[in-house]
Design a protein that fits this description.
161 residues, mainly alpha, Arc Repressor Mutant, subunit A, 0% strand
Amino acid sequence: MRKKPELTLKTRALQYLARREYSRAELAAKLRPYVQIEDDFEQLQPVELEALLDDLTARGWLSDARAVTQLLHARRLRFGTQRITHELRQKGIGEELIAQAMPELKETELESACGVWQRKFGVLPQDDKEKARQMRFMQSRGFGFDVIFKVLRHAQADHEE
């Protein structure tokens, strides 16, 4: 049985990037276990990894801005601003890029929340217990209370017409 050849760091990086966009911090975390470390006692940031990430960025293959765009496109219709912002921070996206994405997210948040509420519930809560359950669900999806109340008021207005 033949042993597979060891993949280079660059090959691994390109395989990851071929599947989806990654932020610089996210790709670094994925590749870190494969970096050859000279001294096991000193876990310094490997120079080889930083050089590779710089090269991928310079070539336009690695972009935090594209990673933000992809995540917004994928999550916008299902989650609120709070949840998406948290996820961007977890992926190591800088505050400047997050701040740039906020106005676009805020514009469509109410529409997204209405869609999420309609798909999940579709009927007004009949009592306080049901209202609290619906609100908790919407909050878990990252929508703020102000947006949740607007969704319920909007649904109430539609119901009364």
